[in-house]
């Protein structure tokens, strides 16, 4: 199972310069290092369909763009898929259809919170997009939460420090107030998708503020 597939490879030099893309490896190469082939992946969960989160859902093969993982089921909220196909003028640059559309026949569309397999469930937490979903992982009484762009880095842990990218900032604020205390209560490992130095950490609440403790 993969949660997100990263930015992919379908960009040119201009695109790389605009977004500051620095690539030293690829997702398929990293899977290979772990002893996994592309057809070993059974499930892909995308929290949303911005290109930097679903770029490796597909890959180029000669002149075609095909699904990267031929045996996988891809899981996304139906509302996010529909919005990705018809984005607004404000966020249309965030959606690159060749990153996700070629895998449509393998995609399962969710309507709200859903258990993917025992121990893995998604929870809708709108704000960044209307149908953003976080991923909860439970194993042997321990928890982790891939919080996605609800809290992209530990610098965004203060409740009102909200990205200008968020389409619904007040919903971001409300969902942070809802989810972050749950993460503290469960002593869950919170996983940040965009933090270049601290990919995951435990949280502690102090004086009404959330603080990231040392990662493991």
CATH architecture of the largest domain: 4-Layer Sandwich
CATH superfamily of the largest domain: Ribonuclease Z/Hydroxyacylglutathione hydrolase-like
Largest sheet: 6 strands, mixed
CATH topology of the largest domain: Metallo-beta-lactamase, Chain A
Please state the average pLDDT score.
95
Main structural class: alpha/beta
Tally of separate domains: 2
Give a short summary of the structure.
The protein is an alpha/beta fold and 216 residues long.
Explain what this protein looks like in three dimensions:
It is built from 5 helices and 14 strands. It is of the alpha/beta class and 216 residues long. The protein folds into 2 domains: 110 residues, Ribonuclease Z/Hydroxyacylglutathione hydrolase-like (Metallo-beta-lactamase, Chain A, 4-Layer Sandwich), CATH 3.60.15.10; 105 residues, 4-Layer Sandwich (Metallo-beta-lactamase, Chain A), CATH 3.60.15.10. The strands form 4 sheets. It has a 6-stranded mixed β-sheet, with no helix packed on it. The chain has a 4-stranded parallel β-sheet with strand order 1-2-5-6. It has a two-stranded antiparallel sheet with strand order 3-4. Strand 8 and strand 9 form a beta hairpin. The longest helix is centred in the last third of the chain and has 17 residues. It is globular and about 55 Å long. The mean pLDDT is 95.
């Amino acid at each position: 199972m993969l949660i997100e597939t990263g930015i992919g490879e379908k960009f040119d030099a201009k695109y790389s310069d605009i977004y500051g893309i620095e690539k030293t490896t690829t997702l398929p190469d990293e899977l290979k290092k772990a002893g996994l082939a592309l057809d070993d992946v059974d499930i892909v969960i995308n929290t949303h369909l911005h290109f930097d989160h679903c770029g490796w859902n597909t890959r180029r093969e000669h002149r075609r763009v095909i699904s990267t993982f031929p045996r996988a089921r891809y899981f996304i909220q139906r509302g996010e898929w529909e919005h990705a196909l018809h984005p607004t003028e404000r966020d249309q640059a965030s959606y690159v259809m060749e990153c996700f559309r070629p895998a449509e026949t393998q995609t399962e569309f969710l309507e709200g919170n859903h258990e993917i397999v025992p121990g893995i469930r998604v929870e809708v937490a709108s704000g960044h997009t209307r149908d953003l979903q976080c991923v909860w992982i439970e194993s042997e009484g321990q928890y982790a939460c891939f919080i996605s762009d609800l809290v992209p880095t530990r610098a965004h842990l203060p409740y009102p420090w909200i990205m200008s990218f968020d389409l619904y900032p007040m919903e971001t604020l409300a969902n942070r107030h809802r989810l972050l205390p749950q993460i503290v209560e469960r002593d869950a490992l919170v996983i940040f998708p965009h933090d270049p130095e601290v990919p995951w950490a435990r949280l502690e609440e102090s004086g009404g503020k959330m603080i990231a403790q040392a990662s493991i």
